[in-house]
Amino acid sequence: MEIAGKSAVVTGGASGLGEATARVLAAEGVKVAIFDLNEEAGNAVAAELGGVFCKVDVTNDASVDAGFAKARAAHGQEAILVNCAGTGNAIKTAGRDRKTGDITHFPIEAFDKIVQINLVGTFRCIAKSAAGMLTLEPGENGERGAIVNTASVAAEDGQIGQAAYSASKGGVVGMTLPIARDLSSEGIRINTILPGIFNTPLLKGAPQNVLDALGAQVPFPKRLGDPAEYASLAIEMIRNSYFNGEDVRLDGSIRMAPR
Question: Which of 81, 69, 66, 65 is nearest to 32 (CA)?
Fold first, then answer.
């Protein structure tokens, strides 16, 4: 796909992996709309890129519909969607308090929240964006659009306390191929990136020795991933018209230990 002049929506685009991708897209001549809950950061990034910010809660139908309406009013129908909105938590399925002996379990509402944001929210944006892409005239090879999702290496080797996070990200991986098959006759492609340990706002405030220890776990290169490296792969997935239905780890060959 030739991306210059196209319109794109990047969820979670106000920071981290999403911001890095939005910046690369804009630098390549793409009109970018940022979906995020952080108004201050989102407006700042959008203004810098000459894009548009849409305050969007991916768990809410009306909010997502309003975001797409605003983005399309500004830039026209998007041909590119990059899903980076997501969150996580760390709670054991069941456990015992070492001091009191009290037994607890993972609160179901906390599990559901992660799934609603990471999995259902991602699918909500995919379905609504793909429906819009169907209105586009097909380009070279009949292509109408390209979608990139963000899963995690936790989809395949989740750690202690990551049951909800791993389930949500595993769901993103699991739905990639069937969605690619659903949309193939309409010329819309979809791929998913499984990032390893990246230097994003999720690690903001962590002491340098902790960051160094995390980086040292990576076989090579022995450091945290740079969001620009995620953006590079996302852009390749968008540009390369034979890239479809794939789930690709981007992790320096790390395989996560239980903790």
Answer: 81
Bridge partner list, 138? none
Q: What is the pTM of this model?
A: 0.95
What are the residue boundaries of the structural domains of the chain, listed by start? 7-250
Separation CA 10–CA 81 (nearest Å): 6
Q: Are the C-beta atoms of residues 11 and 35 closer than 8 Å to each other?
A: yes
Q: How far apart are CA 111 and CA 88, in angstroms?
A: 10
Annotated catalytic residues are 165
Q: Which two tokens stand for residue 77?
A: 């129908």
Alpha-carbon gap, residue 224 to 194, rounded angstroms: 14
Among the four given CATH numbers 1.10.443.10, 3.30.428.10, 3.30.1360.70, 3.40.50.720, the one describing domain 7-250: 3.40.50.720
85-126 pLDDT tens trace: 999 999 999 999 889 999 999 999 999 999 999 999 999 999
